[in-house]
Amino acid sequence: MPDVLPRSEGLLRRYAAYLPLTSATPSLSLGEGGTPLVRSRRLVEQVGCAELYFKLEGCNPTGSFKDRGMVVAVAKAVEDGARAVLCASTGNTSASAAAYAAACGLQSYVLVPRGKIAQGKMAQALAYGARILAIDGNFDVALRFARALEDTRGIALVNSVNPHRIEGQKTAAFEIIEDLGDAPDLLCIPVGNAGNITAYWRGFREWRDAGRAARAPRMMGFQAAGASPIVQDRPFEDPQTIASAIRIGNPASWKGATSARDESGGAIEAVTDDEIMEAYRLLAREEGVFGEPASAASLAGALKLGREGRMPRDAVVVCVITGNGLKDPDTALTIEGDMHDVPAEFEAISRALGASR
Ligand code: F0G
Questions:
Q1: 137 secondary structure, DSSP code
Q2: How many C-beta atoms lie closer than 10 Å to residue 154's C-beta?
Q3: For 174-206, what is each residue's pLDDT tens digit?
Q4: Mutate-to-test residue for ligand 1 from 116, 322, 331, highest number of ligand atoms within 8 A of CB
Q5: By C-alpha distance, which of 74, 58, 103, 59 is closest to 12?
Q6: How far apart are the first and last CA of the chain?
Q7: 322 CB under 6 A from ligand 1?
């Protein structure tokens, strides 16, 4: 059984034995991976399972899980002599691609649906120096164009149709096994383009088969109801959801997601925007974890299973919190808050605290 280096190493070095690297693959790291698995203190009761954990993928260098796949995809692009990387994105992939491209001196090109990208993600792509092409079309349309450009000389496509992305992303499953000492009973995960659920399932399966885990989890994927092609078994022409990261109507890894579901005895279900927003708020207020709306779909799903009496009481459950809440400040600012204009006077401020002395 190959050894694994400490978490201070980047993913490429740490999991070299499990990744498609060669002696010509450049070493590359922005500090990705090694993200915390935080145990729920309060919502575990509402979910109704034995143990509940949050895998905080928002702690990656660009604030989402995409960095795990991107470090592999960009290192391989450099190895193959690419001068640029290209992706279609709902925001996080583009932020990650732009960062790793910048670190390697490559140009990045990103195709995004105009006006449908959360502010923070757009800010990142700009800051890292991507050429941003905002198109009049949704993610599915953007991905179609990106795939059509795939064979352009010198340009590497770094969407999750690039197999190196899935390879890198599977490492999150390894970390969960390391932290828990085995796989959980249930893994709850948001599903958009379906690369991540495909990757986690590969990681859990590989380490079970390698004897590093005794079991693999049931894979529980959650799509937004207005963008739930896999649940309904038909592509959505015009997917709609407040969770812009998973506003996807025709996932590229559709087959990977249904295999993960069927091989693991899991399910892929829908959660409404209201359920997503409720979970988003609860996650921050009850646990101190600020994920982006799409990330809250995993918790919304776990809460729904609990509410409907479908959550096994003795289950160990992990919810993947795929991206940082700061990515989407506009959505955060729409939730009902406790904000007051107060005169800059001691008495007024003291009164506003409700403090008695
Ligand atoms: N959560 C977040 C925060 C995401 O950004 C994404 C996908 C997902 C969940 C769903 O993961 O696509 O592997 O099923 N974001 C992509 C992007 C589509 O372009 O950033 P998936």
A1: S
A2: 12
A3: 999 999 999 999 999 999 999 999 999 999 999
A4: 322
A5: 74
A6: 64
A7: yes
47-63 tens-digit pLDDT: 999 999 999 999 999 99
Contacts of 142 (CB under 8 A, 6+ apart): 88, 89, 111, 112, 113, 135
In contact, 188 and 220? CB cutoff 8 Å: yes
Helix (H, G, I), strand (E, B) or coil at 146: helix
Q: Is 91 in the pocket of ligand 1 (CB under 6 A)?
A: yes
Protein residue with least CA distance to atom 11, ligand 1 = 192
Q: Residue 194 CA: which ligand 1 atom is closest?
A: 14
| Distance (Å) from CA 328 to ligand 1 centroid | 14
Q: What tokens does 179 get?
A: 């932290």
Among 64, 94, 295, name the best residue to mutate to test ligand 1's pocket (greatest count of ligand atoms within 8 A of Cβ): 64
Give the model confidence (pLDDT) of 239-254 as tens digits.
Answer: 999 999 999 999 999 9
Greater confidence, 32 or 356? 32
Total H helices, total E strands in the chain: 15, 10
Reported confidence tier of residue 238, pLDDT bands at 50, 70, 90: very high
Contact 195, 65 (CB under 8 A): no
Is the CB of 113 inside a 6 Å radius of any atom of ligand 1? no
Bridge partners for 248 per DSSP = none
pLDDT at site 259: 98
Residue 1, pLDDT > 90, answer no
Atom of ligand 1 nearest to the CA of 198: 13
User: Which atom of ligand 1 is the closest one to the Cα of 96?
Assistant: 20
194 lines ligand 1 (CB under 6 A): yes
